[in-house]
Amino acid sequence: MTTAAQQRRRAVPRRAWTPGQIVLTLLGTAVSVVFLAPLAWALFTSLKSETEAVEVPTHWLPKEWTGQAWTAILETGNITNWLVNSLVVSVCVTAIVLVTSALAGYGFARTEFRGKHVLLGVVMAGLMVSPAVLGVPLFTTVQQLGMVDTYWGMILPQCAPAAMVYILYKFFQGVPRELEEAAFIDGAGRWRVFLTIIVPLSRPSSRRSASSPSSAPGTTSCGPTWSPTTPT
């Protein structure tokens, strides 16, 4: 790039914010404050003494900063076990969800089979079911299978996310078929096309699919689950 071009680039004035951008920024800031306020309240409360934490009227900042709550949980709680449980469940759920969602979404988007639309409708119907409705049935099922207080009891109920299947299904529909047809002409099979062309192109949607289950272990699109105390 020449010096003259660099000078012209620097001379371009910044556009002033439009009223719509200002309103959206203020609205986003307000929503962020609403979501972050409970977290800040919990953090400040954890730094208060036991007596001060239940005082009325309440106040945000501690009068006397203390870490006795943190000390107590470190001494009496099994934090290492909790962290290991969360890590194992998150990694396993994320890996399984990525594989199953990608395969299901690609199958719906690129293959034709009898009952495809009915099966797709059943999957989409899962988006309309409240997680609270499936809490008890899921627990009963896991209990009957003998998987309470196990890793599989946490992992399996979260491995059929209808939302993630739908996200990848819509993405695969937007991938030009010409890319796959060119690979087929060169002798590539369906699996090779999927692994070498479709999967690399779907990285943005895959990241979206991966972030949803791993960001909230213990919840699922099918229903809430529970935290094992001593998984086996």
UniProtKB/TrEMBL annotation:
A GO cellular component annotation in the UniProt record: plasma membrane
Polar residues bias locations: 218-232
Bilayer topology term: Multi-pass membrane protein
Keyword list, A-Z: Cell membrane, Membrane, Transmembrane, Transmembrane helix, Transport
UniProt cross-references to Pfam families, sorted A to Z: BPD_transp_1 (PF00528)
GO biological process, one term: transmembrane transport
Transmembrane segments: 21-44, 82-106, 118-139, 151-169
Species whose genome carries this gene: Streptomyces haneummycinicus
Highest taxon above the source species: Bacteria
Chief place where the protein resides: membrane
Region of interest (Disordered), ranges: 204-232
Cell membrane is among the record's keywords: yes
Gene3D superfamilies associated with the record: MetI-like (1.10.3720.10)
Biased composition regions of type Low complexity, renumbered to the chain: 204-217
Protein name per UniProt: ABC transmembrane type-1 domain-containing protein
Domain ABC transmembrane type-1 per the UniProt entry, residue ranges: 83-232
Similarity field: Belongs to the binding-protein-dependent transport system permease family.
Location in or out of the cell: Cell membrane
